[in-house]
Amino acid sequence: MALDERKMTATEARLAAMQVPEVGCTKEAREAALERVRRMGLPGRRDEYWKYTRPDSLVQVAAPRAAVFDAGEEPMFSAFDRLRVVFVDGVFSPELSDDLSLEGVQIDRLEDICCTNDHWAEDLYGVLEARGQSPVERPLAALNTAYAGDGVAIRVTGRVSKPINLTYVHKSEQSDVLLHHVIRVEPGAEATILENGPAAARFNKCMEIDIADGGRLHLVRAQGRDHERRAYTSLFARLGAKATFKSFTLTVNGVLTRNEAVVEFTGGDAVAHVAGACAGDGNFHHDDTVFITHDAVGCESRQVFKKVLRNGATGVFQGKILVKEGAQKTDGYQISQSLLLDEDSQFFAKPELEIYADDVACSHGSTSGAIDEEALFYLRSRGVPAAEAQDLLTLAFIAEAVDEIEDKAIAEDILGRVQGWLARRR
Amino acid sequence: MLEIKNLHVKLEEEDKQILKGVNLTVEPGRVHAIMGPNGSGKSTLSYVLAGRDGYEVTEGSATLDGKDLLEMEPEERAAAGIFLAFQYPVEIPGVGNMTFLRTAVNAQRKARGQKELSAADFLKLVREKAKTLKIDADMLKRPVNVGFSGGEKKRNEILQMAMLEPRMCILDETDSGLDVDAMKLVAEGVNALRSPDRGFLVITHYQRLLDHIQPDVVHIMADGRIVKTGGPELALEVEHNGYADILAEVQ
């Protein structure tokens, strides 16, 4: 089917304004990605997959301005011993970053691998993104592969002693950033990756994660408190046998955020949990779009998403579990819930299950509701002031998602940040 | 201490009059029991005193130590010394029992201008009180009332009462859903809190709770009013003859 003309025009206008960065071994992958973008066209308002989220500001040529916001607090994760990899408006900053050598892991800048041939990342860059384009197209991810200006390649070969913290600093009101990371976890290796910061006025980030048999990766991200920023992130994870992938994302503020996660099980008995919590006040639109493909026996997937919305904030959840023929003993679970703190806020949910195997356990649930008045009165009758009681119940609501973080100290830090966010809005 | 005068209350949504002129005074150190048939307004009275939404006071007053309760928010009433042990304690998934207790204790201390309890002092206090109510560490760790048995929920109410040390305790059908052993445990918890400066209002259907918590005064409530007041013997009379005789007599 030919693309409609308007879409084609928008796509070509955007591409004309993009600059291809220095390319080395990723050249072919970038060219192929550009082909994909041209074929698919960038998302338009009439695309089914963008029914609840308007892609206009992510697609248009110039990034809308976004004021830089000083949160006035210690950056996320600063309480933890971690290896810092810092990007300022999408450019790696050696001054702000730690020495990248750490036992059990090899970290290279995308720029460096682009100049080397035969880098391991060559077999991964753009590969999982390309696989993830079917059955649903994700043109903004392909755009990222084609034009990403920076990023890191992380190869985990052992048990890494401390988390690798990717920090994205937003400095310019007009920064328009595309970052692309590739991560390979070798058999039996394990690492934790933390991500934080708003990154840019407009941010398009792609992360491709390949976890070999028995590998484990924990990903915890906090998307920064800048109110005006826009972000589209995509995550493509492929899991081998007995591999584990656990991801949690916290989003507070931001006018527009869409986080896509595409997970594919290719070996048996693997586990993938994708979770997120967001809190939005006013001009806030948050979209979690998840696609999990079970193509192996005995794998477990969990999606847990919680949204706290007020003053006309909007939440979207599109989550799908696809169980292919032969993926017996699949255990799939999906829950998406929103807590609407007033009558102006909205939540759209599209949970989907598509199952071609007959011996599976899949369940899904989606709810949206207000604060439980009974519980609120109970707390108040014990002397807890109304605002504090409401915060306590709100935190309890998102706790199920935050509980997906294995490291309890990090989970507590995340809850503390949300508590602060709520307290500032009393 | 607790003074209720000519209290008239209706349901906000249904425009239905529930309390039709309740008069009641509870003195410090005394235990008052309110008995009455279903629908007589007993639970409404307890909710109105605690400040639950959905009720409209159309006439009358309720004061604690001279302070107008009806003007206060629920949390202000709690800080002033009102405690309602719920007939159906609410389950709060995601909020740990310990966090809940500590938040409540410290919120009240703060409201009264007292210093908040340190984590260590709080822990010591809660362990000590929990022990006498046979509440184990696991129950303290679990989310508030979630997965608790009927007896556990009621014991948890009494634990909160013990921690908060209110001036005026209102027990709404605390015996419902309890077996004999659980009722004894709960009653012991309540009796341990009896003191010369604390008042109790025990609402119950049945006399059996009053075997364990000896009241000083017994009121019979019917159709939104207190229709008869007497000593502990009144509860026995109800037990033997039911409410019908008394209601017939007052009418």
From TrEMBL, chain A:
Top-rank lineage group of the source organism: Bacteria
InterPro entries documented for this protein: Fe-S_cluster_assembly_SufBD, SUF_FeS_clus_asmbl_SufBD_core, SUF_FeS_clus_asmbl_SufBD_sf, SUF_FeS_clus_asmbl_SufD
GO biological process: iron-sulfur cluster assembly
Stretches assigned to the SUF system FeS cluster assembly SufBD core domain: 172-397
NCBIfam families listed in its UniProt record: sufD (TIGR01981)
Protein name: Fe-S cluster assembly protein SufD
Organism: Jhaorihella thermophila
From TrEMBL, chain B:
Domain named ABC transporter: residues: 2-248
Coiled coil regions, renumbered to chain: none
Pfam families assigned to the protein according to its UniProt record, in alphabetical order: ABC_tran
Top-rank taxon, per record: Bacteria
Transmembrane segment boundaries: none
InterPro entries noted in UniProt: AAA+_ATPase (IPR003593), ABC_transporter-like_ATP-bd (IPR003439), ABC_transporter-like_CS (IPR017871), FeS-cluster_ATPase_SufC (IPR010230), P-loop_NTPase (IPR027417)
Keywords in alphabetical order: ATP-binding, Nucleotide-binding
Entry's Gene Ontology molecular function annotations: ATP binding; ATP hydrolysis activity
Family that this chain belongs to: Belongs to the ABC transporter superfamily. Ycf16 family.
Protein's name in the database: Fe-S cluster assembly ATP-binding protein
Species name: Jhaorihella thermophila
Lineage: Bacteria, Pseudomonadati, Pseudomonadota, Alphaproteobacteria, Rhodobacterales
